[in-house]
Amino acid sequence: MTVILNQSFTGISIGAVLLLIALGLTLTFGQMGVINMAHGEFIMAGAYTTYVLQKSISSAGVSLLVALPVAFLVAGAMGVLLEWLLIRRLYTRPLDTLLVTWGVSLMLQQLARDIFGAPNVQTHAPDLLTGNISLGGGITLANSRLFILGLALLSVLALTLILKLTPLGRRIRAVVQNRDLAEVSGIATERVDRTTFFIGSGLAGVAGVALTLVGPIGPTMGTNYIVDAFLVVVVGGIGQLKGSVITAFALGVLQSVLEYSTTVSVAKVIVLVAIVAFLQWRPQGLYTLRTRSLA
Questions:
Q1: Number of domains in the chain
Q2: Residue 246 belongs to a domain with what CATH number?
Q3: Straight-line distance from the first to the last Cα atom of the chain, in angstroms, rounded to the nearest whole number
Q4: In a domain, 81, yes or no
Q5: Residue 80 to residue 102: CA distance in whole angstroms
Q6: CA 54 to chain centre
């Protein structure tokens, strides 16, 4: 029982990481129809932002707190630039966005190698996040994983409030549901698209900061998570935030439990087969957008 509980918490922490990454994709892919393969490089940008700030700020705790908003702004600015230069011309051609952003991702990886070098680098976690919390009976919770879980839930709450309660959120939902009607209603859809891309890319930067607590930083670190994050969005339901939340934690726990009883590779295969079987049964995902359409 103790092993199961420990593995379940590990799975929840994996799910929290996937959720942080998938939040940005829920906007850029789920709500805008853009297959952004450079999303992983925005994660990398957030991680390297943490690394640079830690070189400048002696306190690891202060540098981590400063890195969260700075990484959001850096990755968000990169997303806006990508949207303005390329994506805005390809909104009706999702496969073209895949090819173009894949090329951009390769360019950003090489740029990272030129600036920081090919070898991975490491940041130092604050002392407060290096220990564990013991609940008794052999059950331990890593402080860093708890921080990531809290950060993921806080990001979900913030994004939900923005989409549900703010004028910006109402404009985003209007553009997603009917772009033409939103335009004739006076909504500046191009500005909404750019803002949405900024938020989605910025969330990827925040995910990059979180990943510095669980592993090294390298030019290709984003590619290790991007496919799983896309699966979270697809299985949860395109553009459905609550579906992404449920799916991220479910996949994290399932993968962690399977890894303990088998191997990492076998666990990946079983999870992928389970996802394919689920999508065969429910191709629209866990949740779908309800409309009044009879089609």
A1: 1
A2: 1.10.3470
A3: 49
A4: yes
A5: 17
A6: 23
Query: What are 74's two structure tokens?
Result: 């850096």
Tokens of 24: 């940005």
Question: CA–CA distance from 176 to each of 44, 194, 205 (Å)?
Answer: 28, 13, 23
Of the candidates 93, 96, 48, 91, the residue with the CA atom closest to the CA atom of residue 71: 48
What are 246-289's pLDDT values in tens digits? 989 888 888 888 887 788 788 888 888 988 898 888 888 887 76
180: its two tokens: 């033409």
Tens digit of each residue's pLDDT (9 = 90 or more) over 228-258: 888 888 888 877 788 888 989 888 888 888 8
CA-wise closest residue to 286 among 21, 7, 39, 22: 22
Measure the CA–CA gap between 114 and 130, rounded to whole angstroms: 31
Asked if residue 199 is part of any domain, the answer here is: yes
Please provide residue 106's backbone torsions phi and psi, each rounded to the nearest 5 degrees. -65, -40
Provide the residue range defining the domain that includes 261. Answer: 2-281
The answer to the question of residue 292 being in a domain is no
Q: Is residue 291 part of a domain?
A: no
Are 34 and 87 in contact, with CB atoms under 8 Å apart? yes
